[in-house]
């Protein structure tokens, strides 16, 4: 039953719906195409309207908010170039299974299909990037369609929804009642499914669990860890989902994907039962689908996922279970413990392998990335949030930092550059008392560095560590492997990043040797404004275990 109708503009109806659905933060770049909705925010001061400097940054912030809270992150952008800029954040949310709703201003209804100023057919543009895309043609349908957007974004496999808002629809008056607040729906695992899983698990001598995806919360994470410890099952996490299990939990065996520990890879390949929960097992997490055979894995696989269409899409499991992660993990925790001593020993050995793999390694230059990243365990609180974008620098962060709890990592599985700092801004808004540190490469940082102005405007004391090697390092690495000695298009001329930060009104520091990092970070954590710390690293240090010259020599030797 809806609330009693009253006559309002479409813009006012829309923002009233956001308020009743519990929205407390909205990220935007203003535009005249949704001016009526923007005006309605003045009557809802409880909603924090965060004004950003570019739509891609705003959409990334909405994605990070959705990851951290489990509620749809909300973003408003204008038509045409605003929407195309924001599409990068929508793609991130789709591949990360993040609940998010993007509201896009649109040309007036009478202007449609004439290629009017900044006109784009958003239902076609966003169709492959979102769970659902729609255009609201009448203000009287706003409560219905916004309610559907919340249910769709948060339900099943979470993901982004896009709603197009014709400009004249937002100014039109309508007499319509409000919807009720949405409630998240979950899929319960069936008793027969759980019984079959328990029977397979009881017979397994070398089981391994792999977790991933966006359908988790802290309680589900803790419940699964308790189940794994009781069963003697080592647990792996997929690419950029390392924080689904406390990395110092004795059940944690490491991440899978880029930079995987060879010993961990061997354990997965040698297991006699794979329990995959919440993950699609995509290309990055499986090393180009090489870690696990397609379509029939060598190991019996139980695949648990909140969307039936994903089960069997790539891998044929011996058992598929359609379930949400929260009720599934709770049901697993209730299973009787396994008394098989060999499994407990295997689990502990896998964790010891992980600890050994994450010890710092020496590399070229005066700035040792592995030492710096490993030192974060002592320099930051256990609940600190680390974010990063894409680039070779992130390999050090993923390998040498031990994530201590749920949602202490924010990183895009889509490999989108520029993610780190906008995500850190959202994290500081959600958790103002927690330390938030973003890592970015020099190329990565410049993709969204204008959002430093947003951090300064809202006085958000985030720390951004810029790893500067003067090039697009990942592409240069591939050039050395495929075209040794030839590398057009990857050299960068960068600003003085510390001075760049000060120009925004932030703090800036430059680190040219490892020993200078700890005091620079300590000063940044004490600051009341954002800080940028530039690490000037040796270009030779391309990965923890390889140098550019070494890759070049190896490639030339093969010719």
Per CATH, the class of the largest domain reads: Alpha Beta
Which regions contain 5 or more consecutive residues with pLDDT less than 50? none
Q: Classify the secondary structure makeup into a structural class.
A: alpha/beta
- Which word captures the global form? globular
The helix count comes to 21
Q: Please state the second-level CATH architecture of the largest domain.
A: 3-Layer(aba) Sandwich
Arithmetic mean of pLDDT: 95
**CATH superfamily of the largest domain, called what?**
Thiamin diphosphate (ThDP)-binding fold, Pyr/PP domains
CATH topology assignment of the largest domain = Rossmann fold
Largest sheet entry: 6 strands, parallel
What is the topology, as strand order, of the major beta sheet?
3-2-4-5-7-6
- Our estimate of the beta-strand percent is 15-25%
What is the number of independent domains?
A: 3
Measured between the Cα atoms of the first and last residue, the distance is: 73 Å
Radius of gyration: 24 Å
As a percent range, the share of helical residues equals: 25-40%
Tell how many strands the DSSP assignment holds: 22
